[in-house]
């Protein structure tokens, strides 16, 4: 489908995520990537991504979490724009489309385990495709997204999804109602590869396989069936019983102070808490929107040094919110 009235600028909103379950298998010896069985849950904390036609690619970062975000070609959003341009040339047999000036409004904590950079990359893919005439289908965009990073396809999809493979083989998960959260942002971030490396160290997956470990080292983790069932009930207490994260222990080993945040969450009455993805953001599950506000006030009183905010899921994936002609 080609459009003649393509806009000159497009703005997209893309949600952050928390993994309700994150089961990690031993790393593939060739790629180093770990097979996952994860349940992604998008929350209504969104980055806003705007792209405009320009003479050369550029990037401007604004918003409360702009600090520490590179405004150069290493930014995943910049790489997304370049990769999509190449794909237009390859897939559509056309000249590379015009470069784009990108603006990111960072509302998602950086290096927090909430897939903020991935959200921005997903946002650029959707916004630039809008600008360049929607030549690529949603399926094409998912393929480009998976090339950029394991979390990027879910940024496009949103909602609740089961992620297998590297976390990029997605299928929709049915759920009832909404979940209400308080997110506690640590002052220092964690690098995702460091957390996976720490997991490997803890489980002895960093050395060559022995006869005892070799069978386990070929196993991909099973999807968390009990959590999938609990999500269909919509009951936060039932769901809380089945939340799990294999990266929590390594994240706690790298940032031992996170345990105090989890304990404080319990103390102020959250249903339960877990580390979000590779951390260090801590996600506290609450009973309702009002309860989440109470828990956030309790956390602010108990741990004033920690930044907290409330959010609700499941939220929709990347969506165009504005276009200008
Ligand atoms: C922790 C999660 O956020 C959970 O959803 C993801 O697994 C991380 O996804 P991501 O940051 O988009 O990951 P990528 O950018 O593709 O990879 C960053 C690094 O994470 C590690 N990585 C990531 C995904 C995966 N299935 N196995 C891995 O080992 C690898 O060390 C890789 O070099
Ligand atoms: N658009 C971006 N936004 C934030 N960080 C970015 C971006 N592009 C590149 N980076 C770099 O990537 C690092 C990790 O960023 P990000 O916020 O995506 O981490 P994360 O949310 O923990 O990722 P994930 O949950 O997908 O593992 C940052 O420290 C920063 O140096």
UniProtKB/TrEMBL annotation:
Belongs to the GHMP kinase family. IspE subfamily. Residues 228-295 form the GHMP kinase C-terminal domain. The gene is ispE. Pathway: Isoprenoid biosynthesis; isopentenyl diphosphate biosynthesis via DXP pathway; isopentenyl diphosphate from 1-deoxy-D-xylulose 5-phosphate: step 3/6. One of its GO terms (molecular function) is 4-(cytidine 5'-diphospho)-2-C-methyl-D-erythritol kinase activity. Residues 204-223 are annotated as: Disordered. Residues 75-159 form the GHMP kinase N-terminal domain. This is 4-diphosphocytidyl-2-C-methyl-D-erythritol kinase. Its EC number is 2.7.1.148. InterPro entries: GHMP_kinase_C_dom (IPR013750), GHMP_kinase_C_sf (IPR036554), GHMP_kinase_N_dom (IPR006204), IspE (IPR004424), Ribosomal_Su5_D2-typ_SF (IPR020568), Ribsml_uS5_D2-typ_fold_subgr (IPR014721). Catalyzes the phosphorylation of the position 2 hydroxy group of 4-diphosphocytidyl-2C-methyl-D-erythritol. One of its GO terms (biological process) is isopentenyl diphosphate biosynthetic process, methylerythritol 4-phosphate pathway. It is an enzyme of class 2 (transferase). The keyword Coiled coil does not apply. Keywords: ATP-binding, Isoprene biosynthesis, Kinase, Nucleotide-binding, Transferase. Pfam families: GHMP_kinases_C (PF08544), GHMP_kinases_N (PF00288). It catalyses: 4-CDP-2-C-methyl-D-erythritol + ATP = 4-CDP-2-C-methyl-D-erythritol 2-phosphate + ADP + H(+). ATP binds at residues 109-119. HAMAP family: IspE. The active site is at residues 17, 151.
